[in-house]
Recover the amino acids of this structure.
């Protein structure tokens, strides 16, 4: 919000300055030219803002290349005029049009060539900040949710993630917007995401690249991530189930952190014995609920009366759901009593 207000203030100051400049410039020419001069100043401010919006879309390398090309074009124009048209430069009525035409032609040619060739510049300072992302099937594109989640930092630290990690500028902007939110919960999540990115960048064996690639015609961040993945032939790292489905429908490879976490949970089979602490009651009558260290929920039959106690249970079944895994169990004492009751011998009437 502060950034938007600051932008409007600077734009308003630009119009005010250009308007006053045009007014006094017109007054210097003629008292009747003050109003046209002010209108001309407003027009100049509008053109400036239009150029600003277009220049923001251009990569930094292209801007640098076009600037160098323009300077070289102007130098070439002066050399041509001094070598081939030195006699004409002595005439004041011809010198200005000649130099203006040569500078315009050579400057335009240099500007266009620099704009095209700027992408080929290989400057070490621009390694982490490139407009054109590298095409790499091992590239991993991080989305906002997985950055805020934080587990990606631990995964990269283990060395299991191969290839460069790409962080789009529009994802950084979304994180910054969340961190500046008036909602304290969102603000905390945004700041956590920025801290996670800083932690990943400090890891020595991780190649992190922040890229400027954006898609002005697309508003949703998820859709931009899909387009970027298509462009670089990379994989999206997320824990957003909806993004996972959308990307999969378009043939984009997705690495889901939640799916990875579920696959790494220890295997639990029916009949195994576990020691758990009952924390709360379940949805059904008499049920108690416990949790493993990894967050897996355990529903214990007849466990309600054991709330707050650590007890032994026997696993009866395991249910895998889209949200994770659930384990159903029963009290070990109940299982033991049931077994003893089955072993009790009841004589038939014929034997009495």
């Amino acid at each position: 919000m502060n950034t938007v207000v600051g932008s409007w203030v600077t734009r308003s100051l630009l119009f005010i300055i250009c308007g006053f400049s045009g007014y006094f410039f017109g007054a210097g020419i003629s008292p009747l030219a003050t109003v046209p001069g002010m209108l001309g100043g407003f027009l100049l401010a509008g053109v400036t803002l239009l150029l600003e919006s277009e220049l923001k879309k251009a990569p930094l390398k292209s801007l640098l290349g076009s600037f160098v090309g323009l300077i070289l074009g102007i130098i070439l124009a002066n050399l041509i005029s001094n070598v081939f048209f030195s006699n004409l430069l002595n005439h004041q009525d011809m010198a200005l049009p000649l130099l203006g035409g040569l500078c315009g032609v050579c400057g335009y040619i240099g500007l266009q060539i620099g704009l095209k060739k700027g992408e080929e510049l290989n400057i070490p300072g621009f390694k982490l900040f490139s407009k054109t992302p590298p095409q790499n099937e091992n590239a991993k594109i991080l989305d906002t949710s997985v950055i805020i989640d934080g587990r990606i930092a631990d995964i990269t630290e283990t060395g299991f993630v191969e290839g460069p990690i790409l962080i789009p500028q529009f994802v950084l902007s979304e994180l910054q917007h969340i961190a500046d939110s008036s909602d304290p919960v969102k603000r905390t999540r945004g700041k956590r995401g920025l801290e996670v990115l800083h932690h990943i960048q400090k890891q020595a064996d991780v190649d992190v690249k922040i890229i400027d690639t954006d898609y002005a015609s697309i508003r949703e961040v998820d859709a931009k991530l899909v387009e970027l993945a298509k462009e670089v032939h990379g994989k999206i790292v997320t824990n957003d189930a909806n993004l996972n489905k959308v990307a999969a429908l378009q043939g984009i490879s997705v690495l889901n952190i939640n799916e990875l976490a579920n696959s790494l949970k220890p295997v639990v089979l029916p009949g195994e014995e576990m020691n758990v602490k009952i924390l709360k009651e379940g949805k059904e009558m008499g049920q108690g609920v416990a949790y493993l260290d990894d967050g897996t929920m355990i529903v214990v039959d007849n466990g309600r009366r054991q709330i707050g106690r650590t007890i032994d249970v026997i696993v009866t079944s395991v249910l895998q759901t889209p949200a994770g895994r659930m384990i159903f169990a029963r009290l070990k004492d109940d299982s033991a009593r049931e077994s003893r009751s089955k072993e009790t011998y009841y004589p038939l009437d014929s034997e009495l």
User: Anything to note?
Assistant: Residues 124-131 have pLDDT under 50 and may be disordered. The chain has four domains: 1-55, 58-121, 129-262, 273-340. Residues 291 and 297 are 5 Å apart (CA to CA).
